Amino acid sequence: MSGPATPALPVTTGPHGGARAAVAESPVAARPRRGRLRGAPVARGLALRQPVAAAAFVAAVAFAAMVVANPVQVVVLLAFNLAVLALSGHLRDSLPYVRIALMVGLFLAVLNPLFSPGGLDVLWEADLGPITITVTVQGIVFGITTALRLTAVILAFALLNVALDPDDQLGLLSRFSFRSGLVLSLASRLFPVLSNDAARIADAQRSRGLELDRGTRRQRAAARVPLLSALLTRSLERAVDIAAAMEARGYGAARRSRWLHRRPWRAADVALAGGGALAAVAVLAGLLTGQTAYDFYPLLDDPWPQLLDPWWLVTLAALVVPAGMALRWSRR
User: Fold this and answer.
1) How far apart are CA 329 and CA 269, in angstroms?
2) Is this structure's pTM higher than 0.70?
């Protein structure tokens, strides 16, 4: 038995003579859907802020990490970076940057004590022919502090990369060089496509019986060389398609135009940009007045009195308060 008949939709004529079906208005269909797609990432923290404000804030954090030499202050800045990454929900995304920072930092932490003979507290000394290696407490602390400073700088830029949308990052560049921004935008968008093309071409070759995963590394690399020709051909075809699409949209034919999504500046955006500027000024003032100076040789300075330095307190407040506002407030 057939179900109830579905009423036919009336057919109307479109503006260009084409026929189209008129969709009946209903309260459910007319009501706009709110929320987000299932599985879509939730944007929060710096991802919701103005790109200029976020970039200024991250630059101030990186500048402070490069200038400050006190070990305790460096640890505080590193903990601040990790806390912002964790509260923004991007701590897992920053793991590749953390690995790079740890590898480079470990190299510096081991290398500096061996080639920094200064310091009065000698732990180990050895004569290797014409070379004398002296390991001191001051050299070890200097090496560890240098590694932590580098890690804090890397994590600051990791915060910018993982928190801001790539389009927002490239939009900042396009303000200064539109063509460079366009090239980087296309490259960043086509790199995953190129990777997928390479995987599909390799799977197609495997289905035809080509052995790509057997043998030594040299043999596997030689087996994949012919794939480069197909990948290059596909890339050139896609480049021609993109150029044709851009020409069809009138790119370069008249005065430059662009699609611009204007975001209103919120109080959190102003606080983020102002806090970054204030922190940079405070760090620079501390550098010029010598308040951020810390001596490792020949004896370690006491790190605790600098924690009460006015310029350091201003820097810390200018970073923590806007970050708290950016992480707490969301756009309505």
Assistant:
1) 10
2) no
Report d(CA 258, CA 260) in Å as an integer. Answer: 6
Provide φ and ψ at 326, rounded to 5°.
-65, -35
Q: Where are the domains of the chain?
A: 45-170+266-328, 176-248
Please state, in angstroms and rounded to a whole number, the distance separating the CA atoms of residues 223 and 203: 13
Of 264, 242, 254, 247, residue with least CA distance to 185: 242
Query: For 18-43, how does the pLDDT look when each residue is reduced to its tens digit (9 = 90+)?
Result: 444 443 444 434 444 444 444 445 55
Q: Left, alpha or beta for 259 (phi > 0: left; psi -120 to 50: alpha)? A: beta
Are 68 and 292 in contact, with CB atoms under 8 Å apart?
A: yes
- Whether 50 and 276 have beta carbons less than 8 Å apart is answered as no
3-state SS of 74-91? HHHHHHHHHHHHHHCCCC
More confident residue, 33 or 176: 176
CA distance 239 to 223: 26
Q: Which residues of 303-325 are buried (b: 16+ CB within 10 A; e: fewer)?
A: beebeebebbebbbebbbebbeb
For residue 127, the cross-strand partners are 132
Task: Return d(Cα 67, Cα 293) in angstroms, integer.
Answer: 9
Count how many residues are written for the chain. Answer: 332
Tens of pLDDT along 253-310? 666 555 556 678 888 889 999 999 999 999 999 999 988 899 998 889 999 999 999 9
Q: Using alpha carbons, list the distances in angstroms from residue 25 to 21, 32, 112, 159.
A: 12, 12, 73, 46
Is 306:73 a contact under the CB 8 Å cutoff? yes
Q: What are phi and psi of 291, to 5 degrees?
A: -75, -25
Determine contact, residues 23/29, Cβ cutoff 8 Å: yes
Q: Are strands 11-13 and 131-136 parallel, antiparallel or unpaired?
A: unpaired
